[in-house]
């Protein structure tokens, strides 16, 4: 059999007798390294994994694939992809504005892009046309005036005055709280030289009242009142004191200001730091209003209670502003205030008398002050004596109950009469130098069960009790408060 090779030579048989290039190398002549390279080159490291599944070559290809994947994973730089947030879809006026300025394919039925430029049919305007109506929102500031607010918003002077007068007929303007939002609509005006007329106005004048103004067909403003139903059942909150009375009450929903009032009231009966434990429970009742529209308001503290198991404190705020316990008694503690503005010229104790010139017990305080300075009652009391008293000169003595009395000497003029009841801070006379005195000053004495005590270090505790109609009204209020369930429902 003759075959034609690439050189155009014919050879007999299936092999060519001619060989070109390097002489063939036999296996016996190869080293071990060359043998290893030859064997590795003969192996197919990346066979088709879609064929001969399960064969030795297939498993070898799978191992190669897994190795490459492991190498790629180990060399991964660790770059975290950044998520791009999609823009929210446009709707309403925003969609119309964007669509009017955009160009979309006409094949999709779009009509944008056809009015992007003016043509010969467009006539220029002498001025920009105004909107037929303008909707505004204004906020009433601290110390602001409703009339001035409306004028700043663009309302004419006459309309602003008329609107303020109509609102004043429904609610005093001073009662409108700062921060109130006022919605208004201004109508079309005949020219730019005049203010827009007020068409509508609406706001919440009180927690239980909405007011609205609307211009009628005749051109006048008409006021409409919308009364809002309000449930004024007080809010009662109870809970354990735990590790902190303040934090526990705040966590239960009591406003911070009310918690401060509660602690101050309870502290007048119980030592908060040492006598109140974690297992004690607090009981708080607050003024509370719930409107039918969903809003709520929390007011002053009405009831302060503390249950310690062995002892229960229940205090109620009465009409005089003081805290009374559930039995109708009020206890007041504290120190006496200075009865006159001045400086202490002589203290309590033994001293050399400035006139008699020998050591003598000084049973009060001398307070130097200008002639005619007003003298005030240190605490509530009843005038027991008012007149001339030997060395004291013009002298006033007040009885405060519980064996406590106070005296005020050397007055230039007395302003009270015997038997008169005076309140703390009330003027009872004026500084002078009557009696045994070397200059204008006040001599102030305090007695406890007839014995003189130092006025500056004396602490007092007075107990008052209600009676008659006041006690019955107080008991009714206590019963009503204690009948409220926690949550105010």
Automatic annotation (TrEMBL):
Family annotation (InterPro entries): Cell_wall_metabolism_enzyme, Csd3_N2, Dup_hybrid_motif, M23ase_b-sheet_dom
Keywords: Hydrolase, Metal-binding, Metalloprotease, Protease, Signal, Zinc
Cellular-component GO terms for this entry: cell envelope
Locations listed in the record: Cell envelope
Domain Csd3-like second N-terminal: 235-348
Predominant cellular place of this UniProt entry's protein: other
Domain M23ase beta-sheet core span(s) in chain numbering: 360-455
Molecular functions (GO terms): metal ion binding; metalloendopeptidase activity
Pfam families membership: Csd3_N2, Peptidase_M23
Cofactor: Zn(2+)
Protein's GO biological process: proteolysis
Protein's recorded name: M23 family peptidase
